[in-house]
Design brief:
Elements lengths: L9 E6 L4 E4 L2 E3 L6 H12 L3 E6 L11 E4 L3 H11 L4 E4 L6 E3 L20 E3 L3 H6 L7 E8 L3 H11 L4 E6 L11 E8 L2 E9 H15 L11
Parallel strand pairs: 1-4, 1-6, 4-5, 6-9, 9-10
Antiparallel strand pairs: 2-3, 7-8, 10-11, 11-12
Helix pairs in contact: 1-5
The structure holds cytidine-5'-triphosphate.
Amino acid sequence: MPDTPLAGRHVLVTAGPTYEDIDPVRFLGNRSSGRMGFAVAAAARAAGARVTLVAGPVALDAPAGVERIDVRSAAQMHEAVMAALPADAYVGAAAVADFTPATVSGHKIKKGPGDAGLVLELVRTRDILADVAAHPRRPALVVGFAAETGNLEANARGKLDAKKLDLVCANRVGVPGSGFESSDNTLEVYWNGGHRRIGPAPKAAVAAELVGLVAGRLVDPTTGRPRP
Ligand code: CTP
């Protein structure tokens, strides 16, 4: 596919939730379906890229021609992403757990007759997106996602700065036609000095437009030639 915009490029995408084990039968998860990340992987492949998709536990088939690496936890996702570098672009669409149990019980945690509650100690996970953006082999373009219930622009731009991203895609969660468990999505995409709304539209169309933005930024605007 030499004439497609991402021909010769490697795009690394994460998708889905992570599951953080508490004991052999329980875990902490979240409501990410993985559909947005899978749609981005499919769109990048359609644009000619070699695509690596690191997926948390989801009930989705990998898009044709995409290399899929299945993981469960945030720690496993971190390891798989680092092993898949270098890449020209990284799109962190996964809803990675921010916290994980400090210890995983080797046996099923049982309630005692007098137990009124249970305190779980959680520790921070490593931030995959920030680590990719700070990596010595940093992709030319690092794209993050932000699921927000309020102060969308301020929170999203905060992530852009704090994690040193090139683009951040903010999702308004909890409203129809956007975010988790929805087949449609609306993204507010922010970068330093700019903004574009994508959607509301089916996730495949939103992903195609986002990949178009990514492809455009991998080209040098003065020469029209691919950035090295
Ligand atoms: N992310 C990551 N590794 C983590 C946590 C998050 O790579 N351990 C990435 C996600 O893939 C996503 C972005 O960071 O691209 C989301 O940022 P985050 O700060 O986790 O957002 P929230 O969970 O919404 O955080 P906050 O509690 O600050 O709103």
